[in-house]
Design brief:
globular; 63 residues; alpha+beta; single chain; 5 strands; 32% strand
């Protein structure tokens, strides 16, 4: 597997910190900061769609 290039952690309220990463094969990763060995992965397009939906408020009912 190709190495994952992790971005700096994104921390919301209450110190919920996440990291987003990508690899050279077009995959995207998201993990809790400090637990990068336990990540979710999908295509970059799928991660982009997830982030756009969250920004649009489509996941507010989960909060």
């Amino acid at each position: 597997m190709t190495g994952i290039d992790w971005e700096e952690p994104f921390c919301g309220e209450g110190n919920n910190c996440f990291r987003i990463g990508t690899d050279g094969e077009g995959n995207a990763y998201i993990a809790v900061a400090g637990q990068e060995d336990r990540y979710l992965t999908d295509s970059r397009e799928a991660l982009r769609a997830l982030i756009q939906d969250i920004k649009a408020g489509k996941a507010d009912h989960l909060l």
